[in-house]
Amino acid sequence: MKPANRKTTLLEAAASNNPHGGCHKMTQGHHPASSINVASKRQKRLRHILYLLLILFIAAICFFSLYRYIRPRINRHIRNSEYIQNHAHAYDFPAENNGWKKFGASPVYGEGENIMFDPYCYVEDDTLKMLVSDRKNGALATVTSTDGVQWNDYELLLSGISQTWEDIVNRGCMIKHGDTYMLYYTGQHNGESHIGLAMSHDGNNFYRYEYNPILRPESNHEGASVMNPCVIYDKKSRLFKMWYSAGETYEPNIICYAESTDGINWVKRDQPVLEKGENEWEKDRIGGCQVIQQSTGYIMYYIGYQNIDIARICYAESQDGIHWKRTSGNLLLSPSEGSWDSCAVYKPSVVSWHGQEHLYYNGRNEQGEYIGLAVKPL
Fold first, then answer.
1. Nearest CA among 240, 238, 195 for reference residue 218
2. Residue 287 has what DSSP assignment?
3. Is the pLDDT of residue 308 over 70?
4. H or E element that contains 17
5. pTM of the predicted model, to two decimals?
6. Are strands 127-134 and 139-145 parallel, antiparallel or unpaired?
7. Could you say which of 1, 178, 237, 280 has the lowest number of CB atoms within 10 Å?
8. Residue 76: enclosing H or E segment and its boundaries?
């Protein structure tokens, strides 16, 4: 019987060394190999997640790189489509209205790469002078004429100053007050426009006012730009009066007004004096004007936009230069199909010359932008 007792003793000993009640069989959840498998699966899942995130990151980089590449092309395609749709309205209305007749079949100034725009005309010493914006040089210049058709004697008056508010200069007007020539002009830089002043005692050599610009965009309705100044001196009220465009730099939206006692320090009117109208040819926006004081009040010649691409020349009248009235027949000039001004006519300047009214204006087609003439008997 002793051997049996010995066996029992060994089994009991084995059982006493087994923490799970004397059985060597272990549950699956506590097997060391099983724990390793679980950890391994977790690591694999983590690696898969990291790989997926890396793939998504690379895909995002590729997408944004492709988007940056194709976005300008998409925008150009959209803009081209818009232009085609807009240009379909270029000939909705007659090219000549209210007694105005376009002169000849060509511009009177500018050709080829010699892009000239935004004329401002005035008479001095029996000579007709025109202040023009020279696009190639980003500058303002004058030319002269004795018949209003042939223009000569190009003279550079004012150039831009690089990396300043007047990186390029354009869209000006000129008055003579006493013995001083006062050149009001637009300075442009980084999508913004301001108005500056330069002065001269001989009309040729100009120096800038040291505290330029004299007008900045400040109000919400002025947007990013104030530009296209038109200034007159009212002898009766002894005030300088300025009408200027404001809004977008590419094509402004409204016409505003300011007054000054010295032509330098200006007080703006709180609200625009003229905005887009109900007439089809000026329903989108309005811009660059010339105002002429008459014995009975004021007349304004200005740009009316049917859309951003199609511009025409309109007029309005006022008793005080602030409150303006326009009629349903205030259209003067429109683009002429197949002509050098087939896309747009804009920025008028009117002057009386040899028994006629001369209306100088920008004309544009697909190739260039130049200055044209329309005439009307006085």
1. 195
2. E
3. yes
4. helix 2-17
5. 0.83
6. antiparallel
7. 1
8. helix 32-87
